[in-house]
């Protein structure tokens, strides 16, 4: 954890230095800067409920993810950039939005119960939508945006305990029941025997079997002065995932609401 925080701090210092150099080279910069980079913390889903089973927790959106990290790069495109009014409106395109969280179920496990679990959740998306920027006083800018965010998630998570409770974001039964008929004289008696083999192989552990896609809204606000500001973004909604557990298997829409709090650097 200390190593992660050290790397995070170093990245923030690097961003500040990069911004300062870019500002010095660019000369005059208006209050309504357009390009931005945001780096900060990412919160995914809700906390675990000890009264619910692992499957019930996940399907209710209680993912048990620890505080993670988010990185975004994008630009605002104002339609009235030449206006003398202290107001701009246009489109905010977050070209790239990355997030990463670890799953932390240590406190959920009953005392004396052995378990295996953990690993991580990663997401990548691009967000686009209208933005309104207001300059109420001096160099203070307030940005308010509403975006649509197509997102791809990768969940590498499994929970297994000594009470035979388990949950995994894989569907071990996917592809079962799909067979083709083959004929072969396996016994050498001159009579072709009929048997079935799987129509295609399916590996639930493959990366492509763990990718989930969804489209969610994103609501955000940034309060900034000059290049430095604070950005808050909230993205509610569900995505369809597959799962296997001691309570069943299949596909289900899971609440993966997320919240970002980030340092915003604009140019």
Structural notes for this entry:
The chain has helices at 2-26, 54-59, and strands spanning 35-44, 68-78, 87-102, 115-116, 120-137, 140-156, 158-161, 166-168, 179-184, 193-198, 211-225, 228-235, 238-245, 248-255, 258-266. The model is unreliable at 15-29 and 175-181 (pLDDT under 50). An eight-stranded antiparallel beta barrel has the order 1-2-3-5-6-11-12-15. With 267 residues, the protein is mainly beta. It has two domains: 36-170 and 212-266, Porin; 173-204, no CATH class. A hairpin with a 2-residue loop joins strand 13 (238-245) and strand 14 (248-255). It contains two helices and 15 strands. The longest helix has 25 residues, at 2-26.
Number of helices: 2
**How are the strands ordered across the major sheet?**
1-2-3-5-6-11-12-15
The major sheet is characterized as:
8 strands, antiparallel, barrel
Give the CA-based shape: elongated
The low-pLDDT segments are 15-29, 175-181
Percent helix among the residues? 10-25%
Q: Which structural traits does this protein have?
A:
Porin; mainly beta; 2 helices; 267 residues; 5-stranded antiparallel β-sheet
Question: Quick recap of the structure?
Answer:
This protein is mostly beta strands and about 270 residues long. It has 2 helices and 15 strands.
Summarize the helices and strands and which ones pair or pack.
Blueprint (H helix, E strand, L loop, with lengths): L1 H25 L8 E10 L9 H6 L8 E11 L8 E16 L12 E2 L3 E18 L2 E17 L1 E4 L4 E3 L10 E6 L8 E6 L12 E15 L2 E8 L2 E8 L2 E8 L2 E9 L1
Antiparallel strand pairs: 1-2, 1-15, 2-3, 3-5, 4-7, 5-6, 6-11, 7-8, 8-13, 9-10, 11-12, 12-15, 13-14
